[in-house]
Amino acid sequence: MSSLVGPDEDDPRGKPPVPEDVQEAIRTLIRWTGDDPEREGLQDTPKRVARAWKEYCVGYEEDPAVHLSRVFEEVGGYDEIVLLKDIPFQSHCEHHMAPIIGKAAIAYLPTDHVVGISKLARVLHGYARRLQIQERLTAEVAQCIWDNLQPKGVAVVIEASHACMTARGVRTPGVGMVTSRVMGTFRKDDRSRKEVLGLMGY
Ligand SMILES: [Zn+2]
After folding, report:
1. Which residues bind Zn(2+) (predicted)?
2. pTM of the entire structure?
3. 164 annotated as a binding-site residue
4. Predicted confidence (pLDDT) per residue in 164-187, tens digit
5. Domain 72-200 falls in which CATH fold?
């Protein structure tokens, strides 16, 4: 008779071991919420959950600024806004450890150098893959670009829905939260701010 269980996705080969106390913590939570952590379907769950959390929080293992260390100086005189928008991301709120799912728009006004465009998304993910609040995530991304690229301006707008609001508590699916951080020219000059927010679609 063939097994109902598919290929063992939890094959420990190549995967870091999960300490026993971490597994026990997840078993405790399962027990506390009302299930039996020893039943068949839940036996490997503590390991899977632990490894999933390591992945959700992999940002702790990196300094997002490293993505901005390589810049390009041949910009052909380009001194207008550089914008990456609709960048999907996932994070987890530090209050409930529940998913935050959303998209970000990141813009800067270069001085005499630019950065590979995908690097802006990498900076976002470096901070998103931690326990976060949306406000701090927005500020950290903006500050990292400001400090490391030394642009004339930075604007970051993040729009996200929080599972701690949509799946529990007030249970209001479809609600999005918008946060923004503008620095430099985008903060000081009304017209530049309107221009960048307009390009972002706000
Ligand atoms: Zn929350």
Report:
1. 93, 96, 164
2. 0.90
3. yes
4. 988 888 888 888 999 999 999 999
5. GTP Cyclohydrolase I, domain 2 (3.30.1130)
